[in-house]
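Take a record:
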Amino acid sequence: MPLSKPIGNPLPFLEMHGLGNDFAIFDGRSSDFAPSENFLRAVGNRRRGVGCDQIIVLREPEEFEADVHMEIYNADGSRAGACGNATRCVASLMFDELGRKKCVVETISGLLEAWEDSSGMIAVDMGAPHLAWNEIPLAREADTLTAPVASGGLSSPCCVNVGNPHAVFFVPDAEAVKLSEVGSRLENDPMFPERCNIEIAKIITPDRIRMRVWERGCGITEACGTGACATLVAAVRRGLSARRATIVLDGGELVIEWRGDNHVVMIGPVGFSFSGVIAEDFGDEKRRA
């Protein structure tokens, strides 16, 4: 089929990433575009679709003080409450659109303020972490500092909710953990009724932490912003790190600070990969293969 001939109703999108944690971003502010689960899964597929960890749809905000609303979907079609790296990518787009270096991004988990810091990186105030067992949430009352979860030699994670649930396991060697084998089991542990993001962390120094991540609905990703925030909070709660530290992920580094006002701030770069168009009915089973 000629490359110049679009298929169906073409939807433009941008592919961006934060340290390799990548997103297909659609602007739904001036349309009634409502992605189906089949569409989301097809777009997220790395062999048959665009390929990404999450799909982002921009909407007009509901809150007066917000500049844009961000819907976040995982590659399996499920909804996510927060994504720090995606927030930084969307913030960079809004900086260009608004002609200023500060904006407020609205999500189903709340309003996130973003700005360009003195280093040229993009910072996001992710708000206050939630630490109570029913805020994670866990299936039953338990100490979130050492939750009763174990698999594959990993046990007793520190659980934190930063817009979505995280379980952080501290280990002597993060590289030695077979995350591809234990990630899915831990994500779907009965203790996590809404599933859970899984972080494997090693304390290098009090201000430097190595982290690997298994994201619910995605699997292993190169980076996870909320996971980095959760890891820093967990390390501070365990008395293992300072309140500001560099988190070293597979895709690069983020600076995380748990400030005195109880808010967690994330600082890091964003990248633009490519732009394109895709049919609005992509993933429809009635379409020809």
